[in-house]
Amino acid sequence: MSRKLIALAFVGMCGTAPLLNATSISMAGPCQAPLVEAVGCKYLKVTPLPNDSPLPMAIVVTCAGGTSRYVGALPQQQSATPFDLTNDGVIDGTVAALVDDPANALFLTPAEWLNDVYVTGELVIPSTDYTIQVDCGQPGSPNLTDPVAATTWAFGDVFNDDPTVNLADVFAAILAFQGVYVVAEGPTTKPQMDLDFCLPNQVISLADAFRIVQAFQGLSYAESYASSNCALSCP
Ligand SMILES: [Ca+2]
Ligand SMILES: [Ca+2]
Ligand SMILES: [Ca+2]
Description:
2 domains, two-stranded antiparallel sheet, about 240 residues, single chain, 9-stranded mixed beta sheet, binds calcium ion, about 20% helix, Immunoglobulin-like, alpha+beta
């Protein structure tokens, strides 16, 4: 009998769903490392696995310097926020942000995460190494997977190709601002271009295009944000 069936049988024997306690949840399956890829200079895409797991899972992001933070709701949100990457009306996953307080970590099943979580935050910054783990434990009692590494894209490099920033990168953002998410280079998505302000706002505006213009002009992320209070490194 599979572990999942054992857990279900346990619920059946006891008769009531509230008895699906920590013991039966931990029997439901192993905690798998997530799929991870950078999808912009301020976004990491995290896919908790397996997709059909009934386990609530949290996501932990660690900077190269060793600072770890859980993923929680965006400010003013109660949970992970549905995210339509291209304004085509089809939700593609959720967006959530690094939070300072582990008590604010979101524990959701992969289905509740809508499978693909677009992680951003003030400490998700360009050209920076991160490792990502899933926590299949409970708040305050972590059960972490192996870490998976990803590096965010260069500041303003919409296509992550060169990694220079050229007019193609700038035009992609201007077209997205106008609602067009297909350019000569192919389809684009918001995480490729959403880099203003400290915490990106999931809307492509002229402010995003302006940052990309600054990158095209040769400014670094630190130079572009020098007058802000945005984090310039992830310790
Ligand atoms: Ca969509
Ligand atoms: Ca480029
Ligand atoms: Ca934006």
